[in-house]
Inverse folding.
């Protein structure tokens, strides 16, 4: 229904001088989509209030509402081109009036978990990159054709938006930064099995793929108004440092049906993990922290194990912020399992002693498009030490790439074997007592892999080549005899 509209929006943005990449297209589409969503939400709430005979106070002042500046209509509902701003007038209005007004919501909001605060935060972080008011006018008229009223419409828009995020991940060098493959996330959620009433956290939220998929998993289980309310406001929590990812994460959650996402725009690692109280901790953590980043010395001071590697600081953060009895699934570089530096060894020791690291999923190369690192997923529960680690080596039997990514079928065997930690050609267990206490090496070494056929001796290969040559010469001789 809306797919062609999205394509048309991208076509306009490709010709817009201020937008240079897939990242710009997604960012600029996001702020416009957000304002259209907000207008649809307000119109719906106003109608509901009217039916109940109650007043409704609009969040956005009339002068800055979508129907006033973005899509003015005539009495018959047709687009009013006479009233619609365009060209330089539209650019001036957006830059000098609309954005400053929307940025001011942050100061006026009563709390960070309100939609008002989110408006202020989003428009404090991004700016319009449109240089042509005619391009912007074209995009506004296209976005006005999209509607967020029914669940079906939101569902389709969320799928189209996910595709944009995926393309954005493919466009950048760091594919995993914006996009974790959805089949991988769904497999993690199947193992962790979050329940309504549990708080789910991602401290490196990115485009909020983990939280959105967790919502999709839990939404069908909600069978009362109070459970739906719990999912809306007391279930999903996230933090994101980068402005663009923060905006996209909020928009993605909104499109999936969460009206005011509990996502904070902050550097998660700037918090001192020693300050966390049990009451603030989470029952479930799902995350794919950034690989290979470097954090400054003052940030490292917040952690008992000092390291510049961002992912290792995040892992300490997740161990600390998990409730006793809580469950986590964290994607990390596979070198974490075997690095010999002091910080890596200390962190593996800490993980094994404070948590039950029950499962390690070894992902194939190419799982993350654009990221040249191999990854594993660590599944652990807080509160009891590890006795035994079950490994599974995911092998889809093909090379992964942009046109051939992981799919849900690839995880079927893993999900079938994992509950009982069964041995197979791709899975095995290691007792912690058998792990070297000095190196704490947890690397993936499959003892059940069928032995590869040993390489033949060079003499045998040469002899076979000579025999084939002789056979070819005889055939040629026979052919000559026939001529």
């Amino acid at each position: 229904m809306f797919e062609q509209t999205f394509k048309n929006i991208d076509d306009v943005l490709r010709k817009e001088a201020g937008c240079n990449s897939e990242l710009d297209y997604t960012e600029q589409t996001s702020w416009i989509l957000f304002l259209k969503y907000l207008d649809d939400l307000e119109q719906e709430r106003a109608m509901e209030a009217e039916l109940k005979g109650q007043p409704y106070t609009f969040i956005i002042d009339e002068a800055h509402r979508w129907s006033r500046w973005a899509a003015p209509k005539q009495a018959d509902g047709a687009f009013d081109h006479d009233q619609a701003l365009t060209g330089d007038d539209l650019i001036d209005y957006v830059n000098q009036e609309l954005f400053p007004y929307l940025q001011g919501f942050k100061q006026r909001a009563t709390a960070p978990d309100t939609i008002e605060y989110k408006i202020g935060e989003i428009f404090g972080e991004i700016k319009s990159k449109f240089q042509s008011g005619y391009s912007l006018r074209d995009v506004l008229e296209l976005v006005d054709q999209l509607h967020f009223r029914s669940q079906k419409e939101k569902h389709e828009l969320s799928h189209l938006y996910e595709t944009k995020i995926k393309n954005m991940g493919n466009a950048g060098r760091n594919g995993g930064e914006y996009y974790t493959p959805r089949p991988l996330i769904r497999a993690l959620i199947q193992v962790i099995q979050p329940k309504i009433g549990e708080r789910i956290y991602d401290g490196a939220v990115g485009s909020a793929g983990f939280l959105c998929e967790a919502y999709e998993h839990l939404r069908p289980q909600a069978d009362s108004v109070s459970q739906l309310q719990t999912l809306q406001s007391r279930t999903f929590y996230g933090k994101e440092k980068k402005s663009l990812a923060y905006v996209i994460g909020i928009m993605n959650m909104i499109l999936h049906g969460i009206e005011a996402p509990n996502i904070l725009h902050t550097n998660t690692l700037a918090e001192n993990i020693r300050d966390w109280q049990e009451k603030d901790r989470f029952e479930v953590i799902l995350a794919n922290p950034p690989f290979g980043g470097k954090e400054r010395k003052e940030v490292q001071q917040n952690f008992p194990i000092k390291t510049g590697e961002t992912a290792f600081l995040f892992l300490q953060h997740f161990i600390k912020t998990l409730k006793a009895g809580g469950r986590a699934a964290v994607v990390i570089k596979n070198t974490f399992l075997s690095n010999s530096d002091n910080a890596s060894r200390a962190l593996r020791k800490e993980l094994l002693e404070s948590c039950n690291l029950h499962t390690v999923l070894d992902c194939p190369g190419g799982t993350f498009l654009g990221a040249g690192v191999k990854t594993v997923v660590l599944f652990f529960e807080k509160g009891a030490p590890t006795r035994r680690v079950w490994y599974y080596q995911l092998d889809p039997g093909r090379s992964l790439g942009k046109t051939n990514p992981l799919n849900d079928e690839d995880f079927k065997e893993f999900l079938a074997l994992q509950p009982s930690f069964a041995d197979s050609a791709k899975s095995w267990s290691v007792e912690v007592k058998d792990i070297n206490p000095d190196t704490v090496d947890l690397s993936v070494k499959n003892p059940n892999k069928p032995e590869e056929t040993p390489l033949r001796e060079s003499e045998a290969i040469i002899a076979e080549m000579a025999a084939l040559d002789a056979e070819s010469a005889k055939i040629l001789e026979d052919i000559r005899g026939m001529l």
About this structure: The chain has two domains: 3-149, 174-434. Residues 174-434 form a domain with the Rossmann fold fold (CATH 3.40.50.150). Strands lie at 200-202, 236-240, 262-265, 282-287, 322-333, 355-362, 375-382, 388-393, 427-431. The longest strand covers residues 322-333.
